[in-house]
Amino acid sequence: MRTPHFSESDEAALQARLEDWIDQCRTRRKPVRSCFLSPSQQEALKPFLPWDLAYRWDGGCAEAERKKLILAPEEDACVSDIVCLTARISDKFVQVKHPDVLGALMNLDLDRSQFGDLWVEPGRIVIYTSEELADYVCMNLTRIHKLSIRLERSSMMYEPVVKKQALTVIVTALRLDCVIAGLCRMSRAKAQDLIRAQRVSVNHKILDECDFLCHNEDTISVRGYGRFVLKGQRGQTRSDRIVAEFEQYV
Asked: Per the database record, which ranges form the RNA-binding S4 domain (predicted)?
């Protein structure tokens, strides 16, 4: 069931896949749908999208992170094949979390690119996948951890509940290394190590430039520490440090 896999950072392989999708669409004059792509992969492809074909991104719901690229000869043909699967659960005795669902799907010999956003909310599991895989997942994913489940196609396209909290951080500058040091409460040298180890992304793109200047509405992700959005500056301290306002995903 696995599809050809490319890593998050392998932009050359990703661009080659895009060229293949475009060629298929032009040759067959039929819609072509990619696998589910991460936000960083989507950003990497945007500069190379064709001018002579219609296209759109779709993840099944408005706030989806992982999306498919749909290419078509005409706008009306950009039809999605994404299906929403849900299962009602009771977490009174067994608690199921996102890693449990992800692991169960991977145990079905599925690649991460074959399904989109998934989450666990009170009383329900939600999984987005493709039409061609929906029945397979429903028939084979019947147990997660110690909990028996029954997945069904949903007529509703559920939206994830995104929770954020306000966070005020004092930083010496809006350089990326200074911002990471303030957000993660670590030394600037440690922050630089994280950046060079490619554990930091800005607007879903991995950066290794410690002196990158952050701007309002930039989304900053630090693997192992969380995701933050820079909202602006409140002012400066007496020692000329910047009082920066963030939103933190929780």
From this structure: 174-234
**Nearest by Cα to 204 from 38, 58, 45, 56:** 38
Cα separation, 11 vs 110, in Å, equals 22
Enter the pTM of the model.
0.80
DSSP string across 102-171: HHHHHTTT--GGGEEEEEEETTEEEEEEEHHHHHHHHHH--EETTEE---EE-SS-------EEEEEEEE
Range of the domain at 53: 13-77
Q: What is the CATH number of the domain that holds 210?
A: 3.10.290.10
Instruction: Give the domain-ending residue among 153, 186, 210.
Output: 153
3-state SS assignment for residue 90: coil
Inter-residue contact 191 to 25 (CB < 8 Å): no
- pLDDT, block means (10 residues), the chain with 250 residues: 52 93 96 95 94 96 95 96 95 82 94 95 95 97 91 94 91 97 97 96 91 96 95 94 95
Last residue of one domain, picked from the residues 34, 57, 77: 77
Rounded distance, CA 107 to CA 111, Å?
10
220 Cβ neighbours under 8 A, 6+ residues apart: 176, 179, 180, 183, 200, 201, 202, 214, 227, 228, 229, 230
